[in-house]
Design brief:
alpha/beta; 16% strand; globular; 5 helices; four-stranded parallel sheet; Rossmann fold
């Protein structure tokens, strides 16, 4: 965990988008003291239009995407609103977190 990255997340409104976004939101709150601006769960490509509408109604600066191939569609959509979109791969998966954090999930 980079202190610079934590500081970046603390200083900006962060939107989480992914299958495990709610779990990751809890991790950010409990272990890093970061309260995300929002959390959107995506399971299927069929949800893209609905999720794009949800994104438009949330105030945020940075979106962290862990949405597989759906991130390829959502990232440019988010960027079109002059927002930063970062595809963080599988980083929302608790199996990849430090053991102390993952074991409490």
């Amino acid at each position: 965990q980079s202190n610079e990255f934590k500081l970046l997340l603390k200083e900006h409104q962060v939107l989480l988008i992914g299958k495990l976004s709610n779990v990751f939101a809890d991790y950010l709150k409990c272990y890093l003291g970061i309260s995300p601006a929002g959390s959107i769960t995506i399971d299927h490509y069929d949800q893209i239009i609905q999720i794009e509408k949800m994104i438009q109604n949330i105030s945020f600066d940075i979106a962290l995407l862990s949405a597989g191939s759906n991130a390829v569609i959502l990232a440019p959509f988010i960027a079109s609103y002059n927002k930063v979109a970062l595809d963080i791969g599988r980083a929302m998966n608790p199996r990849l977190w430090p053991k102390s954090a993952a074991s409490s999930e």
